[in-house]
Write a structure and sequence with these properties.
Strand 4 and strand 5 form a beta hairpin. Helix 2 (30-44) packs antiparallel against helix 6. The termini are far apart. This protein has helices spanning 6-24, 30-44, 70-76, 83-89, 104-107, 167-219, 243-249, 253-256, 261-264, 270-275, 322-336, 346-354, 366-377, 427-434, 436-453, 477-491, 519-544; strands at 47-55, 61-67, 80-81, 94-96, 99-102, 136-142, 150-159, 224-229, 238-241, 282-288, 294-305, 312-320, 396-397, 400-401, 416-425, 459-464, 467-475, 495-497, 500-502, 505-513. The protein is α+β, with helices and mostly antiparallel strands. Strands 3-2-1-7-6-5-4 form a 7-stranded antiparallel β-sheet. The protein has a 5-stranded antiparallel β-sheet with strand order 9-8-12-11-10. Strands 16-17-15-20 form a 4-stranded antiparallel β-sheet, with helices on both faces.
Length: 545
C-alpha cells in the first residue's frame, strides 16, 4: 500500500528528473553530455553511483563517464569491456522492461569477465527488497529508429533509500536512459557536423590556396599557358591566356580570346594539331604571330575539371622551341646538303629519287586492262580492290603513282621523271692552274646557274666532285633535251673569280626513272649516257681539229 508521503516523493523525483533531462540538452560537447548523463542519475534518480559505458566504433564499450565516487572514477574511467561480455550481462538476470537487473545471487559468475566493475561495501540485506552491495542494474541506451542500435549502457549502484527500485523507479530510469540516448545521438551529430564544418573550411581554404597558387603559376609562368573550352560549339576556343603567350605571339589577351590554336597554326601543321590527343597530347607546330611570321612551339595538353561534375577545360602549356627547332633544321640541312654549294647531297638525292620508285615495274597495257576489269566488278567508281577510274591515266595503283619513262624515239606524249647527269669539262685544269679556292668558287657558281635554270620543284643536287644531278618531273623526251641544252649554255659562260674569267664545259646525260628500277640503276643509266655524249663530242672536236 502506498504511504501518504510517497506521492510527494514521486512528485519531487519527477521534478528532479525533468530538470536533469533538460540539462542533457545544454551540454556542448559529447564528453560534456556523457558526464551530464552520469551526474543526472545521481542528482535526479536517487542513486549514489552511476557509470556511462559508451560503445566504441569497434563494438567494445568504454567507461566514458562516472559520478558519485572519485575513487571509483579514477579506478575504472577509460577501461574497456568486450562487446561479448556486455551482451552476456544484458541477457542475464531479470528484465524490467528495457532494464536488466542481475541480483547478487547470479552475479558471482561475472566476477572474472573483462567488464570494468566496482563493489560497494555494506551489510547483508535484512529484508527481501533491500539492495545488496553486489546487485547490478543496467539501463541500455538504444539509438532512435527500428534498428535498436546499442549506443551504451548506464550502470547504477546503491539507491539512496537502500531498496531495489519499484515500478516507478524502474520507469524513471528507463525513461532517463531513453532521453540520454537521444542526447548522446544529438551530441554525436553535433560533433560530426562540427568536424565536417571544420573539414569543409579547411578544404575550402586549401581550395582557395590551390586556386591562388594555380592563378599565380598560370599568370606568371615563364612559358605560354592557355585554357580552352572542351566540347560544344566553341570547342577549342581560347578562354584565357597568360602574358608569356601573348608576348610570344605579339597579340593582346583580348584578341587571343577570339581564336583557337587551329586558327593560329601554320597551314602545313594543321594535320599535326588535329592528330594531337586532347588528353595528355603533345605536338610541335608553328603558330602565327601578329606580324605574319611563325614561331615553333611545343604544345602539351591536359584536361582539368571545374568541379566534380562540372565542365572540363583544356590546359595547354606552350613552350617556345624556335631556337631548338632552328638548330635541328640546321643539323638536318647539313646532313642532307652539300656544305660548299648548299645543294642537296648524294644521300638526299637518293632519298628523293627512292621515294618516287617502287619495286614493281609498270605494265602499261596488262595492268590497265586488269585494273579496269576489277573496277567494273565493284560499285560506283571503285572496284573490289579500291581502284579509281580517274587514276587509270595517272597509272595509280595501290595508292602509288607509278613513275614511267617516255620513249626516246617515239613522242607519244608520255611525261616522266628526267634524270640529268652533269659532269664539268675542264674543271681539273682550273684546280691545277688556279688552286682549289678558285675551283670551289666555280662549283658554287655552277650550282647557282643550274638552280636558276630549272623550275620550282625540280631538284639540283651535287653528287660529288664536279658531278651534278638534276631531277625534273613531268618532262617528255624533247623537253629534257631542251633543258639539258639550256643548262649547258648557262654553264659555259665565263665565270669571274678573283678578277679573272675562267670557263668550264658541261656534258649531260639524260636518263629516266621508272618503277622497277633501283636508284643506282637510274643514276648509272644517266651516267652512261653522259659518257656517251662526252665521247661523241670528243670525236667531233677531233674531226674539227
Amino acid at each position: 500500500m502506498e504511504t501518504e508521503s510517497e506521492p510527494y516523493v514521486r512528485l519531487a523525483t519527477l521534478r528532479q528528473l525533468h530538470q536533469v533531462v533538460a540539462d542533457l540538452n545544454t551540454a556542448r560537447s559529447l564528453a560534456d553530455t556523457l558526464q551530464t548523463v552520469a551526474d543526472g542519475v545521481v542528482a535526479g534518480l536517487g542513486y549514489e553511483l552511476a557509470c556511462v559505458n559508451l560503445v566504441r566504433p569497434d563494438g567494445d564499450l568504454v567507461v566514458a563517464a562516472f559520478a558519485g565516487s572519485a575513487a571509483a572514477e579514477a579506478l575504472i574511467t577509460g577501461r574497456v569491456g568486450s562487446r561479448e561480455s556486455w551482451e552476456r550481462r544484458l541477457s542475464m538476470g531479470e528484465a524490467w522492461g528495457e532494464l536488466r537487473f542481475i541480483p547478487h545471487t547470479e552475479g558471482w559468475v561475472l566476477i572474472e569477465d573483462d567488464v570494468p566493475q566496482w563493489h560497494t561495501e555494506g551489510p547483508e540485506p535484512r529484508f527481501e527488497d533491500e539492495w545488496h552491495p553486489q546487485d547490478r542494474l543496467y539501463a541500455p541506451m538504444y539509438a532512435s529508429g527500428g534498428g535498436r542500435e546499442l549506443l551504451g549502457v548506464i550502470s547504477v549502484d546503491r539507491p539512496r533509500n537502500g531498496r531495489r527500485p519499484g515500478p516507478w523507479g524502474q520507469e524513471a530510469l528507463q525513461m532517463y536512459a531513453s532521453q540520454a540516448a537521444i542526447a548522446i545521438s544529438n551530441a554525436r551529430l553535433r560533433a560530426n557536423m562540427q568536424r565536417a564544418l571544420v573539414r569543409l573550411e579547411r578544404e575550402q581554404q586549401a581550395l582557395r590556396a590551390s586556386e591562388e597558387s594555380f592563378r599565380q603559376a598560370f599568370e606568371y609562368a615563364p612559358s605560354g599557358m592557355a585554357i580552352a573550352e572542351m566540347g560544344g560549339d566553341q570547342h577549342g576556343r581560347l578562354l584565357r591566356t597568360n602574358d608569356a603567350l601573348c608576348r610570344l605571339l605579339g597579340r593582346p589577351a583580348s584578341a587571343m580570346r577570339r581564336y583557337s590554336f587551329a586558327d593560329l597554326v601554320h597551314p602545313e601543321d594543321v594535320g599535326t594539331l588535329l592528330r594531337t590527343s586532347a588528353e595528355g597530347g603533345r605536338a610541335e607546330i608553328r603558330l602565327g604571330r601578329r606580324d605574319g611570321t611563325y614561331v615553333w612551339v611545343s604544345l602539351r595538353n591536359s584536361v582539368v575539371a571545374d568541379t566534380a561534375d562540372g565542365p572540363r577545360f583544356l590546359l595547354t602549356h606552350v613552350e617556345d622551341i624556335e631556337d631548338r627547332k632552328r638548330h635541328e633544321l640546321q643539323l638536318a640541312h647539313r646532313a642532307s646538303h652539300d656544305a660548299l654549294t648548299g645543294l642537296p647531297n648524294s644521300a638526299e638525292l637518293r632519298a628523293r629519287l627512292s621515294s618516287r620508285l617502287c619495286e614493281r615495274p609498270y605494265a602499261p597495257y596488262a595492268s590497265d586492262i586488269q585494273s579496269l576489269d576489277a573496277a567494273y566488278e565493284g560499285d560506283g567508281g571503285f572496284g573490289a580492290d579500291g581502284f579509281d577510274f580517274g587514276a587509270v591515266g595517272g597509272r595509280a595503283y595501290d595508292h602509288h603513282v607509278h613513275t614511267v619513262a617516255p620513249d626516246d624515239e617515239i613522242d607519244d606524249g608520255t611525261k616522266g621523271l628526267a634524270v640529268l647527269f652533269c659532269d664539268l669539262d675542264g674543271f681539273k685544269s682550273i684546280n691545277d692552274r688556279f688552286g682549289h679556292q678558285t675551283g670551289d668558287a666555280v662549283l658554287v657558281e655552277v650550282a647557282r646557274r643550274l638552280t636558276t635554270g630549272v623550275r620550282d620543284g625540280d631538284t639540283v643536287a651535287r653528287l660529288g666532285g664536279d658531278e651534278f644531278v638534276v631531277l625534273a618531273d613531268g618532262l617528255g623526251a624533247a623537253d629534257a633535251a631542251d633543258l639539258a641544252v639550256r643548262l649547258r649554255n648557262a654553264i659555259i659562260l665565263p665565270i669571274r673569280v678573283g678578277g679573272r674569267g675562267v670557263r668550264v664545259g658541261a656534258s649531260f646525260g639524260i636518263g629516266w626513272a621508272s618503277c622497277g628500277m633501283s636508284v643506282e640503276e637510274v643514276l648509272q643509266s644517266a651516267d652512261q649516257r653522259m659518257y656517251v655524249e662526252k665521247r661523241s663530242r670528243a670525236k667531233v672536236h677531233r674531226r674539227a681539229g
